[in-house]
Amino acid sequence: MAQNQPIFQIKPEEHFAQIPVSIERDSTTLINSNRKPNHWPTILLSTICVIIGQSIAKLLENFYYDKINRSEYNEHRQNDGVWTQALLQTVGFPLLLLPFIILTAKKHNQPSSDQFHYKSLAVIYICMGIVMSVQGRLSAMGKLEIPFGIFTLIYTTQLFFTPIFARFVNKIKFNRWVVISLVLAIVTGALTLSSSFGGEPDEAELNYARGSWAALFAAVCFSLLLCNIQNVFDSYIFKRTESTTRKPSFSSVFEVIIFSSLVATLISMVGLLIAGEQHDLKREMNGFPKGKGSYVMAMVGQAVSWQIYWVGTVGLVFSVSSVLSNVISVVTWPIVSVLVVIFFNYMDDELDVFKGVALITAVLSAAAYFFRLHKENRNSAY
Asked: Which Pfam families does its entry note (predicted)?
C-alpha cells in the first residue's frame, strides 16, 4: 500500500498538466485561451453594437442619397461623395478616446511591454488604416456603379475570404458548427439581393466591370482587415498580459479602432480634398430638402453609428474570432433590408420571400456559432 500511494498521486497530476495544452491547441477554432473567461457579456454587447451601428448607418446613408436626388446626377458626378462615405466610417474615432483613457488608466501602474511591440504595432496600425480607407472607398464606389443586388452578391464573397485568411494567418481550425454557420451566413447575404439602395445607379450610369471589381476588392480588404485585427490581438496585445496576473482589457478594442481609424481618416481626408468633394458637401448642405440641420445630423449620425459598428466588430474579434465577427456583420444585412422597406418607399421594394428567408437563415447562422461557443465553454470548464 505504501508503494502504491505515490503512483496513485502522480498519475492524476500528469494527466491534469496535459489538459491546458490540449485546450489551448483546440481553442484556436473559436476562443483564444488568453481571452477573458467570462466573455459572454462582451460577445452579446458586441453583437448588439454591430446590429445597431450598421442598421442606423445604412439607414442614414439611404436617407442621404434619397434626399440629394442621387438619381438625377449626371455621369460626371456619378462617384461624388465616395471619399466622404469612406471618411464617415472612421472620422468618429475621437468619440472613443474617453472610454479608452478611462479603461487604460485603471492599468496604468502595470509594467509596460517591450518597446519592440509598440514599434511593430505602429507599422501594423498604419497598414490597417490604409486597408480600412481603401475598403471604405471601394465599397462606396461599387454601390454607385452596379445594381445593389449584384453588389451584395459580390460583397458576400468576404465570407469565403475571411475563413481562408483566418486559416493561414490566424491558424484557426474549423469544425462542423462553424462551417454550418458560414454556409447559412453566405445564404443570408445572397438572399438580400432584392434589397434596395438610395444611391443605386440608373442604366446610363452602370459600369459592371469597374463596379464588380470594386465590390470584390472591398470584400477582400474587409476580410483581410478582420484577420489582421485578430493577429494584432493574438500576437501582440494578448502577449502583454502573459507575464502579469491581469486579463486582457476591452481597452485594446478601442486602441485598435482609434489608431487604425486615425490613419484611415487622414487618407480619406486627403482623398476628399484632392477629389474636390469639399465643394460638393457645401452645395449639398445648402440644397438639402430637409434643411442644413438635417444634413449635418445625417452626416454626424453616420459617423457615430459607424463607430458603434466598429466597436462591435472589433469586440467580437477580441472575444472570439474574425470569423464570428464577419458572420454577425453579414447576418445583419436582412435587418437593414427590412428597415429600408419600412422607412423608405423605393420602387419595387417590398417584404418579399427572399427577405423573410434571409431573416431565418441569419438567426440560424448566429445560433449555430453561438451553440458551438456554448459547447466549447462547457467542455473547457471540465
From this structure: PUNUT (PF16913)
